[in-house]
Amino acid sequence: MTQVEAPHATAKERPGAQVRRRIMDAAMEVFLRDGYVGAKTDEIAAAAGASKQTIYKHFGRKEQLFEEIVLDRLVGIDQIFKAAMTELATADDVETTLRAVAHKFVRALTQPSQLRVRRLVIAEAGRFPKLGRAYFEAGPERVHASLASCFEELARRGLLRIDDSLIAANHFTWLTTSIPVNKVMFCGDDVAFTEAELDHYADSAVRVFLAAYRPD
Amino acid sequence: MTQVEAPHATAKERPGAQVRRRIMDAAMEVFLRDGYVGAKTDEIAAAAGASKQTIYKHFGRKEQLFEEIVLDRLVGIDQIFKAAMTELATADDVETTLRAVAHKFVRALTQPSQLRVRRLVIAEAGRFPKLGRAYFEAGPERVHASLASCFEELARRGLLRIDDSLIAANHFTWLTTSIPVNKVMFCGDDVAFTEAELDHYADSAVRVFLAAYRPD
User: Fold this and answer.
1) What domain range includes position B202?
2) Is the pLDDT of residue A17 over 90?
3) Predicted ipTM of the assembly
4) Which residues of chain B neighbour A33 with C-beta distances below 8 Å?
5) Which residues of A touch B215 (CB under 8 A)?
6) Of B129, B182, B205, which is closest to A188 when you measure between CB atoms?
């Protein structure tokens, strides 16, 4: 399975970046284990081998640290999609390319680390809608906007027939990922999928999508 | 908007049922406000005007009370679906009937009380997968199983063309509900939808579904 982790490469680019990365990794583990309310800055500091003062200096309050590490997790997903979108917008064989995108997509979104963050954001979105909205904008909304402009381009080239490109983008992503993602959301983080299951979800999603959005 | 609440009628059928109902309603409010871990039996007792002993007598431990009230919320949804399913299995005009089902479905699942329970179950499913699984089985899995047998019946009558009826059922429900449900999960409980938006989600879902699953 492709690993989508935070991009460690950037840690070499700024002074203090390695300390920030260590704090963010430690904080993610503590937040995932104890939830937002239960997470203690003391424990994050101990896990990161840093002082509380260092954490405050780099991130400010717990709320800002939480927001920063959650959004950071989306960077890896975004990189996968940028490559896939370029491929898709210039595709001639839409079916083959869409299928490849769907296969990558369902694997990226069913990674345990992504799903645990997703659960955490949903859990806190009632109390901290600002964080949830930031995640939604940087994650699903951004992906849907990119996908929608790909679909518009494919429609201009006569390869798709699209009336509402944003709805079409949503149909594509939810058809592809809803079955496994919702199963994990409800049934817990130990639910696993075989490669064949993920392929089946992706292929059947593409079949339904193209039946609706391919020109006659 | 149709109200899907727990069926109060049953409260008259058993001795002690009114006390149980009062405790369950109070407990739901406390769980939703404070989360599972934060919810205190003392506060549930105070809100219900009952003693802690009465709560223990009727429900046992906090975990059992939580499971019971969460599953209870699905009863209302189930009743809506039973009626819709009967209508669907015997439909002659599949498009009109499916559209009616989709309109009911998207309204039932976007009710604030349903979405708050959904968030709560997802929030706790990492720590309490048993509860999440019970909810999944009594909710999405049961709806998908009923819908799948409707679709099989419609396929037998030549009105749909279905190879994997359970995947088709999932496609129908997630196409219909994923856009608004996910938006609320991430962006918080204050997100509201206009009737026109809900209609658009339902109608475009049915259009995509039928493009894929209607016989040529």
Assistant:
1) 8-213
2) no
3) 0.87
4) none
5) none
6) B129
